[in-house]
Write a structure and sequence with these properties.
- With 326 residues, this protein is α/β, with parallel strands linked by helices.
- 50% of the residues lie in helices and 14% in strands.
- It has eleven helices and nine strands.
- Strands 1, 2, 3, 4, 5, 6, 7, 8 and 9 form a nine-stranded mixed beta sheet that branches.
- Helix 1 crosses helix 2 and helix 1 packs across helix 11.
- The longest helix has 65 residues.
- The mean pLDDT is 90.
């Protein structure tokens, strides 16, 4: 008897591109595929908290009306490059986002939540989960650290150490997802791993932009770009990767940090389409594998029947020869 299915979702970071998660979650939910555990990085931390608070409807509502720039560019007398450790305060952004998050509820949620943080005090990426928190207030603190983009926002102090957005250390923690003992892993990566071909560079700026695009793609997806997947499996666990196409690739401040309703809707629609495309390809692969397995079994049965028939003929021949000798 097999063990109960455990689906682990990885929600990778990508700032405003995180709206892509919403469409992918919507399609997967329609197919009856929902997470038992979520590992979130950067914007994935926020999406995980909103999803655990009110499900997909709340997540769609949050992204449907969200404008990021007025909440990111929040000058502060305390948090600024002269007197502080960042360009802006994160208070305005946190207040707006936490309208959709019920921390006491998610502290008791059936969904296991794991957050990727960068511990600046110790210089390493770390995993912090709901189970590491003594109450929902600590959960709120580590969630804020999870999207505290370095230099843009100040680091968050927790239990004596300073933490920031973990996407800079471990944006796609595929290996950690394996430690959760999953039966399936769904990787929702909002940063496209494929870049469009570029045959020439018109200027130094064009050349530098291409290098930035490659670094953004590589850092954002390193956790699975170099993973040794064997027929879509990692250590025997099926891994389904859902990411945008190359039309949404590349790094640009307004592309990455600027979220607004019309753009968010486009990304949600793209996430839905991409999830549908990936799952259709997976079903075709499973059907081909099933046919190949059935054909192999039929061939083995036919070969066995041929061997058995040959043995029967030999026995009959010997019997006939013995009868003739008598």
């Amino acid at each position: 008897m097999g063990r109960r299915p455990k689906r682990v979702f990885i929600l990778g970071g990508g700032a405003a591109l995180g709206a892509h998660h919403v469409g992918a979650l919507k399609y997967l939910g329609e197919q009856g595929i929902k997470p038992d555990a979520i590992v979130g990085s950067s914007i994935g931390v926020l999406n995980a908290c909103v999803y655990a608070s009110g499900g997909l409807p709340t997540l769609e509502e949050a992204w449907g009306e969200f404008h990021s720039l007025p909440r990111i560019f929040a000058p502060s007398l305390r948090h600024n490059p002269i007197f502080g450790l960042s360009m802006f305060s994160m208070d305005r952004l946190s207040r707006a986002l936490e309208e959709y998050i019920d921390f006491p509820m998610i502290f008791e949620s059936r969904i296991d939540l794991e957050f990727i943080l960068l511990n600046l005090s110790r210089g390493r990426g770390e995993i912090w989960s709901r189970n590491d928190c003594s109450d929902w207030r600590e959960l709120r603190t580590i969630s804020r650290a999870g999207y505290a983009i370095p230099m843009l926002f100040p680091p968050v102090r927790f239990r004596g150490d300073w933490f920031v957005d973990g996407g800079f250390a471990w944006n796609i923690p595929l290996d950690h997802a394996l430690a959760l003992n999953p039966t399936e892993i769904y990787l929702l990566a909002p940063i496209a791993s494929q870049l469009p071909y570029q045959g020439r560079f018109g200027s130094m700026l064009d050349y530098v932009q291409r290098l930035v695009d490659v670094m953004w793609r590589t850092i954002g997806n390193m956790g699975y770009l170099y993973a040794k997947l064997d027929d879509g499996k990692l250590n025997g666990v099926p891994v389904t990767v859902i990411e945008p196409g190359e039309e949404l690739s590349g790094f640009g401040p307004l592309h990455v940090f600027n979220a607004y309703p019309r753009k968010n809707r486009r990304l949600i629609e793209a996430g839905y389409r991409d999830a549908k495309r990936v799952m259709a390809a997976r079903r075709r692969q499973e059907e081909q594998h099933a046919r190949a397995t059935a054909d192999a079994r039929a061939a083995r049965r036919a070969a066995q029947a041929k061997v058995t028939a040959g043995s029967d003929n030999v026995v009959a021949l010997h019997a006939a020869e013995s009868k003739g000798a008598r």
